[in-house]
UniProtKB/TrEMBL annotation:
InterPro entries: ATPase_NBD (IPR043129), MreB (IPR004753), MreB_MamK-like (IPR056546). Forms polymers. Forms membrane-associated dynamic filaments that are essential for cell shape determination. Acts by regulating cell wall synthesis and cell elongation, and thus cell shape. A feedback loop between cell geometry and MreB localization may maintain elongated cell shape by targeting cell wall growth to regions of negative cell wall curvature. This is Cell shape-determining protein MreB. Belongs to the FtsA/MreB family. The gene is mreB. It is found in: Cytoplasm. Its main location: cytoplasm. ATP binds at residues 27-29, 172-174, 220-223, 294-297. Keywords: ATP-binding, Cell shape, Cytoplasm, Nucleotide-binding. It comes from Streptomyces spirodelae. Signal peptide: none annotated. PANTHER family: CELL SHAPE-DETERMINING PROTEIN MREB. It comes from the Bacteria.
Length: 343
């Protein structure tokens, strides 16, 4: 009895407890941060579904293996595209699976409170859908936090100060650009051009120039190899002859292939500056912008942004983990950061 009183008290004074989790629901990767432990799960946002029964067969890395390789009765999908949820059922299945995976082996404790990070471009309807999804996936309560704010906190920017901090988060489906001051976004832009757009630009470029069809995973590998500075062999079926063909792509060719989406990202960053109040613009001239998200690792993107905006640009230490770490910080300091939650 005494024990129960105690736990009720501590629950009241500290709304978030042990098993509470923060979820970076990304279009490419979902990361789960567990309060007091750190990032405990990092998996691709992919679900494999049996199309006959609608059952979720696999989630995460296991499901990703199946992308582009599934027989007719299995569909491997990415339930988020362009920074929004495009398949609600699959998203729910994925979230439920991840929440269970995190809770596994810890007895039956109370279901966790959950903070989910959403892209700033999502609409009210989509936000409610995220909350509902996490709710039905087994969360006790759900709060939302804007992705650029989480990314900025995770990158160590002083978002609470009366000073402009700028973050450019380049994920799989969207690029989120924000200027943050006093814990809020003064400028926020979201464009649906990011890692995926780079991949498909590479695939169509190869198809056009060399008449070879390549899948999205191959295109992504080519993109990631850009940093090596070496030629990349590309294998596939020649669409004209029907025969196998191998070509060697130079880094210059890959650069040419991604030029259009890169230009769109640069243009979006430039447009954000046009909306930026003068004082904050001055702050950013001094301190620069920080790139987060996996797309921040695209070789040469930081220099390109520096050249075209005239601003200092740095890549965050762990660009792929920033949003999850920032969401985690909000869990750890829930009371202090209350004002940051979007809903
Ligand atoms: N070294 C790299 N070079 C270029 N792009 C990369 C690199 N590493 C990861 N990416 C890209 O980052 C994207 C995933 O980033 P992430 O921040 O996890 O996205 P999201 O938040 O949308 O899930 C993918 O498009 C992936 O191809
Ligand atoms: Mg992200």
């Amino acid at each position: 009895m005494a024990k129960r009183t105690h736990s009720a008290l501590s629950a009241a004074s500290s709304p978030f407890r042990g098993r509470d989790i923060g979820i970076d629901l990304g279009t490419a990767n979902t990361l789960v941060y567990e309060r007091g432990r750190g990032v405990v799960l990092d998996e691709p946002s992919v679900v494999a579904i049996d199309t006959n029964t609608g059952k979720v067969l696999a989630v995460g890395a296991q499901a990703r293996q199946a992308v582009g390789r599934t027989p007719g009765s299995i569909m491997a999908t990415r339930p988020l595209k362009g920074g929004v949820i495009t398949d609600f059922e699959a998203t729910e299945g994925m979230l439920r699976y991840f929440i269970r995976a995190v809770r596994d082996g810890k007895g039956r404790g109370r279901s966790p409170r959950v903070v989910v990070c959403v892209p700033s471009g999502v609409t009210g309807v989509e936000r409610r859908a995220v909350v509902q999804t996490a709710d039905r996936a087994g969360a006790r309560s759900v709060r939302l936090i804007e992705e650029p704010i989480a990314a900025a906190i995770g990158a160590g920017l002083p978002v609470h100060e009366a000073r402009g901090s700028m973050v450019v988060d380049i994920g799989g489906g969207s690029t989120e650009i924000a200027v943050i001051s006093l814990g809020g976004m003064v400028v926020a832009r979201s464009v649906r051009v990011a890692g995926d757009a780079l991949d498909s630009a590479i695939a169509s470029w190869i198809e056009r120039e060399y008449t070879i069809a390549v899948g999205e995973r191959t295109a992504e590998e080519i993109k990631m190899s850009l940093g090596s500075g070496e030629f990349v062999p590309v294998r596939g079926r020649d669409k004209h002859t029907g025969m196998p063909k191998v070509v060697q792509l130079s880094p210059e060719e890959i650069g040419e292939a991604v030029e259009r989406p890169v230009r769109s990202i640069v243009a979006a960053v430039q447009a954000a500056f046009e909306e930026c109040p003068p004082e904050l613009y001055g702050d950013i001239m001094e301190r620069g912008m920080v790139l987060t998200g996996g797309g921040a690792l695209l070789h040469g993107l930081d220099e390109r942004l520096m050249k075209e905006t005239g601003m200092p640009v740095t890549v965050a230490d762990e660009p792929l983990g920033c949003v999850a770490l920032g969401t985690g910080r909000c869990l750890e300091e829930y009371d202090k950061l209350e004002s940051i939650f979007a809903a």
